[in-house]
DNA sequence: AAAGCTTACGAGAGCCGTAACCATA
DNA sequence: TATGGTTACGGCTCTCGTAAGCTTT
């Protein structure tokens, strides 16, 4: 038995039992992969794959029993290499973060600049995309960290999720707008106007819908966007009333617009930081989390990683 | 990197950093082992061993960080092989049990005969020895199961310990002995006679001492033995009063001797079954535990193995 | 036909063990 | 001097990739 055999075994499962894809993914020949699998089956004395003629269709019952151990071994071997790398190049490396516009623009800048000061040699990569893509990038191991409000918290089997910060939606209107008359804000008054807010699945949008539905109100969302900057642009054009995350409003920068707090109308939202479970973490990743939330140290993170939520 | 390198690494640590011993333990050449270690260090880019000239003295700090991962990988690889073996030869194999005389003679016989009926092809090996040796045999992996009253329960880091059954000490005397006069048994009355019981460290002996000490009584242990059969022999010779585990008394077999219950004088004892943590368990091992305690199924055992006590 | 797995085979890398060498107690 | 680790080296196995063959869709 050798590690390559296990790697090929794992990759073949991941590539939906397509040996050709598996071998290209591992930069090796397909014939070699074929032989490796047969050798492994021979040594273990067990058929791992269900075959129809020459095609691989899936795992046998025995294969399913053994694959989890194999996965763990391969993962551990990778982690061993990473750990060793980490020990020699403590300060160098890459940190890839997948995140939404909202986080990248309003929540992460102070974190990133502090992090860059602490680890100048680490190459930072911000991957801006939607919540589903964050999840798949994380799962595929293409990024180290995911940051978003949506989509992460219900993936605690694969990810360890840490609370980042909490925030509320606010209403944003042009100066002199009827809603800015000082009278208390209600859902009914807001819904009298055309609304502009985030796309479905972005930045707490699901909760907004829920609130209106619970109140029996059907608002008119005339325009939805991926980010608050676009929303603000159309609010300035007087196309409607904006509903944005309050940290997206900047008094000096957003002259001509007025922010009306709406914490009493909409429930609070929580943004999460997610890491894959089971993978080795470079020391600077711990540092990054530590900057995000001071109470997260390497020790506490390690502890929370192995359990459920945080 | 390959598995042999990791195996050699692990074995070298286990053999107290003696490469020669490590390589003989793995049935390979010492020169090869030397090379493997240097290759591994080269590939990982880290010195794993502290050296003084050419001697290996211990692990470096980096080595200490990595050794636990290496241990786990090697263990998983072994478990993978065992699991596969298990899947093909479900019913065959060996089951080694280390246990004391008391368990082997009085508690295990019904379990063993039931087990043999269920798995006739499994070769059973009973290793009779003292509690400390049970612990070391288990640790070394020379036996699969340890059964004893003493020594196991405070090793929960290395072993998963399951309660087997509970029992009490009893007093045993020849027929017509003054203690068998029907009057209630007290510590004071017992201590008037010379006592015969188990060696230190065997079958609840420590608790006996504690009870007398707490009562401010200094009994006269004239003779100690490893097992109840020896004790009974000397009680028959009227050399003293016996203190034995009550399950060691058999009315028909032990004619001429009288058992006086002493559950009110001595605290209850618990016998434990111990398994090593982290190792793959053949299906018949689950069956063995299941016979010992009906509520232990493969599922419950798996669950309890990963946690602390049971 | 096209996609996909297996078999055959030759080149080359890597592993192993013997033996000689070197360093430490 | 004995124990223990390293270096050198030849044999040999094992791995890898190309190419051809065979099966299934």
What does this structure look like?
- The structure is a homodimer of 310-residue chains.
- With 310 residues, chain A is α/β, with parallel strands linked by helices.
- Chain A has 3 domains: 84 residues, Arc Repressor Mutant, subunit A (Orthogonal Bundle), CATH 1.10.10.10; 103 residues, D-Maltodextrin-Binding Protein, domain 2 (3-Layer(aba) Sandwich); 99 residues, D-Maltodextrin-Binding Protein, domain 2 (3-Layer(aba) Sandwich).
- The first copy, chain A, contains 11 helices and 12 strands.
- A 5-stranded mixed beta sheet of chain A has the order 4-3-5-12-6, sandwiched between helices. A 5-stranded mixed beta sheet of chain A has the order 9-8-10-7-11, covered by helices on one side.
- In chain A, α8 links the parallel β8 and β9.
- In chain A, α5 packs across α10.
- Chain A is elongated and about 80 Å long.
- The interface between A and B is medium-sized, with 23 and 23 residues.
- The first copy, chain A, binds a DNA duplex (25 and 25 nucleotides) through α3.
């Amino acid at each position: 038995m050798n590690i390559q055999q296990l790697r090929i075994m794992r990759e073949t499962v991941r590539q939906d039992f397509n040996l050709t894809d598996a071998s290209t993914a591992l930069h090796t020949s397909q014939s070699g992969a074929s032989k490796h699998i047969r050798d492994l089956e021979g040594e273990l004395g067990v058929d791992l794959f269900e075959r129809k003629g020459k095609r691989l269709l899936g795992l046998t019952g025995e294969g399913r029993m053994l694959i989890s151990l194999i996965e763990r071994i391969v993962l551990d071997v990778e982690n061993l290499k990473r750990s060793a790398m980490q020990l020699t190049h403590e300060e160098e490396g890459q940190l890839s973060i997948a995140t939404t516009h909202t986080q990248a623009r309003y929540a992460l800048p102070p974190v990133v600049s502090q992090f860059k000061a602490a680890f100048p040699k680490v190459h930072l990569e911000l991957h801006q995309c939607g919540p589903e893509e964050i999840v798949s990038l994380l799962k595929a191991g293409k990024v180290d960290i995911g940051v978003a409000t949506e989509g992460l918290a219900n993936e605690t089997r694969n990810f360890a999720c840490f609370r980042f910060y909490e925030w509320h939606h606010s209403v944003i209107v042009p100066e002199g707008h009827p809603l800015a008359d000082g009278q208390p804000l209600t859902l009914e008054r807001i819904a009298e106007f055309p609304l502009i807010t985030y796309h479905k699945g972005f930045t707490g949008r699901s909760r907004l819908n829920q609130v209106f539905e619970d109140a029996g109100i059907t608002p008119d969302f005339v325009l939805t966007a991926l980010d608050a900057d676009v929303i603000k642009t159309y609010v300035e054009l007087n196309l409607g009333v904006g509903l944005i995350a309050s940290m997206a409003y900047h008094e000096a920068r957003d002259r001509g617009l007025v922010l009306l707090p709406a914490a009493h109308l909409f429930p609070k939202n929580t943004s999460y930081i997610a890491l894959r479970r089971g993978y080795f973490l470079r020391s600077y990743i711990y540092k990054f989390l530590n900057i995000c939330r001071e109470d997260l140290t390497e020790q506490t993170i390690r502890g929370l990683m192995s359990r459920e939520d945080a």
